[in-house]
Amino acid sequence: MQIVILNDAIEVAAYGADIFTAQLNRNANSVLGLATGSTPVALYQALIERNKAGDVSFSDVTSFNLDEYLGLDGSHPQSYRHFMNSQLFDHIDINKAHTYVPPGDAKNPVSACHEYEEKIAEKGGIDIQLLGIGRNGHIGFNEPSSGLTSRTRVKTLTKATIDDNARFFKPDEYQPHLSITMGIGTILDARKVVLLATGENKAEAIQAMIEGPLTAACPASALQMHRDAVIVIDKAAASKLKDIEFYQHIEAENQKLQAYLASL
């Protein structure tokens, strides 16, 4: 893991946007794995601004989203398809026909999960996968106890996740308790993973992911096995790490190494 500790959420979003911009400028037809939730919004806003300024294009991009609520179609205001359209796709030069979100209204959800995996493989796999992290360590909707080699499937949401997401639903509005999510194995297949986290409420999950054991009790700990995982967090989210100065030193040395390699 590469651990990047920054001052605040603004710097985290900008750093994440730099990674995605560099990927797209290096490979215009990249396959992106995208995420929903409050954390990616600032990153998406930064990418929208860069797209409008002509600094990056999405015209040849294909994207796959991590997850979707089971039981909501894409027009529902709480669906993740609606979220992606309103927070990103409606504002950039992407072909929406090349943006994929698990179908929350699938008549046969099990078959839809298999088809999603097949579509990812058909497009050549995901080049760079964006992640957030839940307070209980979930990535996508892979809740604690999820298999570390799991594939796209239907998952039951924990009470903690339902409670965390309740703020997005009106008091009398139906809130799904099931989802379709990429599996942890699917996520680990991405060539690069970028996880963003901000705020003290994510500090315990971050500590468990980075310094805890590899365990299904903290699904995000599976990223310890990934060959190119970048964890971008602010100081609040890093506050429970045992030695923040150590991670900052390692990252500074990594930056020197990258500069040296670039000069060769």
Automatic annotation (TrEMBL):
Residues 11-229 form the Glucosamine/galactosamine-6-phosphate isomerase domain. The keyword Hydrolase applies. One of its GO terms (cellular component) is cytoplasm. Homohexamer. GO terms for biological process: carbohydrate metabolic process; glucosamine catabolic process; N-acetylglucosamine catabolic process; N-acetylneuraminate catabolic process. Pathway: Amino-sugar metabolism; N-acetylneuraminate degradation; D-fructose 6-phosphate from N-acetylneuraminate: step 5/5. InterPro entries: Glc/Gal-6P_isomerase, Glucosamine6P_isomerase, Glucosamine6P_isomerase_CS, NagB/RpiA_transferase-like. It holds the Pfam family Glucosamine_iso. The record marks 146, 153, 155-156 as: Part of the allosteric site. One of its GO terms (molecular function) is glucosamine-6-phosphate deaminase activity. Belongs to the glucosamine/galactosamine-6-phosphate isomerase family. NagB subfamily. This is Glucosamine-6-phosphate deaminase. It comes from the Bacteria. Allosterically activated by N-acetylglucosamine 6-phosphate (GlcNAc6P). The active site is at 67 (proton acceptor), 136 (for ring-opening step), 138 (proton acceptor), 143 (for ring-opening step). It is an enzyme of class 3 (hydrolase). Gene3D superfamilies: 3.40.50.1360. Its EC number is 3.5.99.6. It catalyses: alpha-D-glucosamine 6-phosphate + H2O = beta-D-fructose 6-phosphate + NH4(+). HAMAP family: GlcN6P_deamin. Keywords: Allosteric enzyme, Carbohydrate metabolism, Hydrolase, Isomerase. Catalyzes the reversible isomerization-deamination of glucosamine 6-phosphate (GlcN6P) to form fructose 6-phosphate (Fru6P) and ammonium ion. PROSITE patterns: GLC_GALNAC_ISOMERASE.
